[in-house]
From TrEMBL:
Segments traversing the membrane: 49-74, 111-132, 144-164, 193-216, 252-274, 301-322
Source organism, top-level taxon: Bacteria
Species: Micromonospora sonchi
Domain ABC transmembrane type-1: 107-322
Keyword Hydrolase set for record: no
Name this polypeptide is given: Sugar ABC transporter permease
Length: 340
C-alpha cells in the first residue's frame, strides 16, 4: 500500500458515551442510560390540575385558613361580637389565658383525656379486633353492637347517659336493687369520679371506631405468615405478639393520632352532660368548653377568639410532634415506595 493510500485512510474515532451515529457520519446525542428525560407539563395538564384541585383549595382556604386568620386577628382586640373591632389590646388576651387557673385546669383535663383514651381504648380495641377476626358464632352481630354507639349522635348519647347517671338515675337504682348500694355515687358531680365517668362514656362510644379500623388492618396481614409460624410451633399469643401486632402497627399509630386530636378538641359530650359551668367544678372541663363559657356566653368574643387560637396551636403542635417522631417511618415508607 502506497503512502498516499496510507494518508487517505482515516481511522473513525470511537463514538463517545451518549453519542450515536446516523449513517456512520452524524453524531446524535442520546440521554445517558438510567436517566429519564424531563418533559414539561403542557397547558392541558395544568388546566386539568387546576380544575381538580381548585375547588378543594377554595373550600380549604375559606373554611380552615380564613377562620383561623380571623380568630387570630380578633384575638388582639377587646371585642363584644358586634361592630368593628377598635379596642386593640395586643397580647393581653393571650396573657390572661395562661394566667387563668381555670384554663390551666381545662388544659390539664385535656391531657388526662388524651392519655386515658390511648390507655383504655387502645388495648381493649386490639383485643376485641383479634377476637372478632376469628371465626366465632354471632361474629357479625357482635361487630354491629360494638360499632352502633359510634354512629349515634353525641346529643343522644350525652342526654341518655346524663339521665342514667344522675343521682336518682337508673344506674344508682339498679345498684340498690341488686344489693350493691355501697357503689352508688354522684357519678357526674363528684370531682374524684366525674373524669372516670367521662372516660367510660368516651370508651363506650368510640371504641367501635377503633375496632373497625383494626379489623381492616388485620385483613391486610397475609395468612401465610401466621400459618408458617404455627407450623414452626409458635403459640397463638406468640403469633400475635411477633407477627400480628408489628404488622398492625401503622394502623394503631394512625388511630392513636386521630384519638389524640379528638381528645384535644373534645367539646360536645362534656357540654351536653355537664354544661359549661358544672364541668369546671366537676373536673371535666376542656379547652373547648372554656372557650365557649368565657367567650360567647360571657360576651367577650375577642377573648374567645384568642382561646380558639391557643386551642388550634396546641392541636397543631401535638400533630406535628406526633408526625415527626411517631408517624415518620410510616410516611417515609409510603414516600419511598411511591418513588421506587
Amino acid at each position: 500500500m502506497s503512502d498516499t493510500q496510507h494518508e487517505s485512510v482515516r481511522l473513525a474515532p470511537d463514538p463517545s458515551p451518549g453519542l450515536t451515529t446516523v449513517g456512520g457520519d452524524t453524531p446524535v446525542v442520546s440521554p445517558p442510560a438510567g436517566r429519564r428525560t424531563r418533559r414539561g407539563i403542557g397547558w392541558p395538564a395544568r388546566l386539568e390540575i387546576a380544575l381538580m384541585t381548585g375547588p378543594t383549595l377554595v373550600v380549604f382556604l375559606s373554611f380552615v385558613i380564613l377562620p383561623v386568620a380571623m380568630a387570630a386577628y380578633y384575638g388582639f382586640f377587646s371585642w363584644q361580637g358586634y361592630g368593628p373591632a377598635e379596642d386593640f389590646v395586643g397580647f393581653r388576651n393571650y396573657l390572661l389565658i395562661f394566667e387563668d387557673s381555670t384554663f390551666l385546669a381545662a388544659l390539664r383535663h385535656n391531657g388526662i383525656i388524651v392519655v386515658l383514651s390511648l390507655l383504655l381504648q387502645g388495648p381493649a380495641a386490639v383485643l376485641l379486633a383479634l377476637l372478632l377476626n376469628r371465626q366465632i358464632r354471632g361474629q357479625t352481630l357482635i361487630r354491629v353492637l360494638i360499632f352502633v354507639p359510634y354512629v349515634i349522635s353525641e346529643v343522644v348519647v350525652g342526654t341518655g347517659w346524663s339521665l342514667m347517671l344522675h343521682g336518682d338515675g337508673v344506674v344508682n337504682a339498679v345498684l340498690g336493687k341488686i344489693g350493691l348500694g355501697w357503689l352508688q355515687s354522684e357519678w357526674l358531680s363528684d370531682p374524684k369520679i366525674a373524669i372516670w365517668t367521662l372516660m367510660g362514656i368516651l370508651t363506650w362510644k368510640y371504641i367501635g371506631f377503633a375496632v373497625i379500623l383494626f379489623l381492616a388492618g388485620l385483613q391486610g396481614i397475609p395468612e401465610e405468615l401466621t400459618e408458617a409460624a404455627a407450623i414452626d410451633g409458635a403459640s397463638y399469643w406468640q403469633i400475635q405478639r411477633r407477627i400480628t401486632l408489628p404488622l398492625l402497627g401503622p394502623t394503631i399509630r394512625i388511630w392513636a393520632f386521630l384519638s389524640m386530636i379528638g381528645a384535644l378538641q373534645l367539646f360536645d359530650l362534656v357540654y351536653i352532660i355537664w354544661g359549661q359551668y358544672i364541668a369546671d367544678t366537676a373536673g371535666t372541663s376542656t379547652m373547648a368548653t372554656y372557650m365557649v363559657a368565657n367567650g360567647r356566653t360571657a360576651g367577650e368574643y375577642g377573648y374567645g377568639n384568642a382561646v380558639a387560637v391557643v386551642l388550634f396551636v396546641v392541636s397543631l403542635v401535638a400533630a406535628l410532634f406526633y408526625q415527626r417522631f411517631v408517624l415518620r417511618r410510616d410516611t417515609e415508607g409510603a414516600i419511598t415506595g411511591g418513588r421506587n
